[in-house]
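Folded chain entry —
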Amino acid sequence: MQQTTDSAPRGVILVTGGSRGIGAAICERAARDGYDVCINYRSNEEQAQAVAEQVWSAP
């Protein structure tokens, strides 16, 4: 996988199951890589909000 150092947005990513586990990790990594992230969750809004806050604070 080739990584770039530019900061241009790369698009939008939708992560189903993004409130925990692998989905949350994907959300955080995608945000660090410059993607706009849409987090989908089934039942735990509090956990999804916590992941969203992590994503928003990603450099």
